[in-house]
Amino acid sequence: MTVIISGLIFAWTLVVLLGLFTVFEERKRLDRLLQETGFNSEYPGAQKTEKNSLLELAKKLSMGQRLVNYLLQAGVPLRLEEALLIGGAVFLLLGYLIVAGLFIEALALTIVLMFLPSLWLASVRGKRIRKFDGQLGEAMVLMANSMRAGFSFFQAMDLIAKEAPMPLGGEFSGILKEIQLGMPTERALSGVLQRVASEDLEMMVTAVLIQRQVGGNLAEVLDKISETITERVRIKGEIKTLTAQGRISGMIIGSLPLVLAFILMLINPEYIKVLITDPVGPILIIYGVISQIMGALMIRKIVSLGI
C-alpha cells in the first residue's frame, strides 16, 4: 500500500512539474510577442487581471499580497498562481519523501525550503531596487535638461523609457503605456511605487504630483531631488563597505548550523535521525530555527543603517 501511495504522489508531482514547464514556455512565448509589438511585459499593466475566486482569495490574504508585491519588485516573471503551483508540487514531493520513509531527505528539504526561496527573492529584489536607484539620479538630470530644452514632462519620460537600461527604462515605459491606455496620470505614477519599493522614486513621484496640483518649476525640483538621490546612493555605498565584515560574519554564523547538519547527515545519518525519532527532537528543531531567525534579525538590525 505504501508503495502504491508513493507512486501516486510521485506521478502527481511529475504531472504538476510538467504542467509548470508548459505554463512557463507559454509565458515566454507571450513575452516574446509583447516585446515584438513594443509592449513591455515587465510591468503589471501587461498582466491580465485574474478572475479565479481561489486566486482572488489568495491575493486578499496579507501573505499572498506580500508575495505578489515581492515578485513584482524583484522583476521575477512569475504570477501568483504559478508560485502556488510550485509550492504545491514541493509539498507533494515532501509528502512523498515522508511516506517513502526518507525522513533525513525530508528534513533536509524542509530546512532548505525554509530559507532558500525567501533569501533568493530578497536578494534579487534588493539588487533590482539598488540598480534602479543607481539609474534614477542620472535619469532625473536628463529629464530636467530635456524639460529646459522645451520637452514636456511626458516627452522627457519617453526619452528615458527609450534610452535608459532596465529596470528604469521598463518601468518608465510601463507608466507611459498605462497612461496611453487611459489610466489617470496620478494613478499610473502612484502605481509604479508598488512595483519598485524605492524611497528615491517616491520622492520624485511626490514632487511630480504636487507640481501637477500647485504648479512650479519642475525641472529645478528634479535637479534638487537628483542631487539628494546621488548623495544618498554614495552614502549607502560607503555604509555597505563599512558594514561588510558584520554582514559576512552574520552569513557565516547563520549558515554554520545548516552546514554542520548536512555534514553530519552524510557522515552519520543515525546521529541526525534522532532529532526525528525522539519526541524531543522536533522541539529542538523548532527552537533552533526560532533562535536562528532571531539571531539573523538582530545582526541585520545592527548592520542596517537608515538613510
Structure description:
The chain has 307 residues and is mainly α. Among the domains are: 129-230, Receptor-associated Protein (Up-down Bundle), CATH 1.20.81; 243-307. 83% of the residues lie in helices and 0% in strands. The protein is built from 13 helices and no strands. It has helices at residues 2-36, 53-60, 62-74, 80-99, 103-148, 153-163, 168-180, 185-195, 199-214, 218-242, 244-267, 269-277, 280-303. It is elongated, with a radius of gyration of 24 Å. It starts with a helix and ends with a helix. Residues 36-55 and 57-61 have low confidence and may be disordered. Pfam families: T2SSF (PF00482). Residues 142-265 form the Type II secretion system protein GspF domain. This is Type II secretion system F family protein. It is a multi-pass membrane protein. InterPro entries: T2SS_GspF_dom (IPR018076), T2SS_GspF_sf (IPR042094).
Which features would summarize this protein structure in a list?
single chain; 307 residues; mainly alpha; Receptor-associated Protein; 13 helices; 83% helix; elongated
Concise synopsis of the structure shown:
The chain has 13 helices and no strands.
CATH topology of one domain: Receptor-associated Protein
Spell out the helices and strands N to C. Answer: HHHHHHHHHHHHH
Shape: elongated
Main structural class: mainly alpha
Count of DSSP H/I helices: 13
Which segments are poorly predicted (pLDDT under 50) over 5 or more consecutive residues? Answer: 36-55, 57-61
Mean pLDDT: 76
Number-wise, the strands total 0
